Amino acid sequence: MGSLMRHTRMIANLGLLLGALTAGLAAMMPWWNGSAEVIPGAVDTPTPAGQALCGVLAGVIVAGWLLSATLPARARQVTAVLLALVGLIMMWAAFTGPGEAPDASLVGDVAPHQPTGWHWAALPGGVLTVAGAVAMVIGAPSWRRRADRFDRQAPETISPDDDPADLWKAMDAGLDPTADDGGITGPSSERTGG
Asked: Residue 25's closest CA among 66, 54, 49?
């Protein structure tokens, strides 16, 4: 069972990180080939809304992944559901594509606008994000939080019968309180007659 949960954590982490990387790649690459001369001498390549959306979603995925490392199990599952929604939005951006060609009537054309196909890079990013989020929903209840390693251990309960004076008297008598058997050790055993 521990191996399965370790694998779900690995699948979740890889899925979310690779999803964020491919979303970032889809946001960085041009979705349109061509440019328009907005101001004489200055060339502007239009950015479709889906391309900008992929860049934002890549940041959201990384933020959700980092946040999930500190959250308890139930909140981690809620975060995973939200990340799955982000992956679905990214897939929607891939299917809607770069949209219509930029309007050339308002600006002078320098080159014709052709879609490049880079919008399809958002599709595997969305699929990987959804897969990682599903693995997180399934496995999150059994994962430890990263912050748990810094929690203090519960103090040992001290019974009313434990009197510190008794410990000192036992050490004066030659008893070693750190010994496993609590017995008498060393040369002091000769003094007590043991």
From this structure: 54
The pLDDT, as a whole number, for residue 105 is 47
Question: How many structural domains compose the chain?
Answer: 2
Regarding beta strands 114-115 and 32-33, do their DSSP bridges make them parallel or antiparallel, or are they unpaired? antiparallel
Tell whether 136 and 176 lie within a shared domain. no
Rounded to whole angstroms, how far apart are CA atoms 178 and 168?
A: 13
For residue 93, pLDDT over 60 is answered with yes
Domain with 179, as residue range(s), is 162-194
Task: Give yes or no for a contact between 4 and 143, defined as CB atoms under 8 angstroms apart.
Answer: no
- Give the contacts of 19 (CB within 8 A, at least 6 positions apart): 61, 87, 90, 125, 126, 127, 128, 129, 130, 132
- For residue 117, which of 29, 45, 46 has the smallest C-alpha distance? 29
Residues 75 and 45 in one domain: yes
Distance (Å, rounded) from C-alpha 104 to C-alpha 119?
A: 21
Residue 87 has pLDDT above 80, yes or no: yes
Model pLDDT, residue 108: 53
Decide if 33 is inside a domain. yes
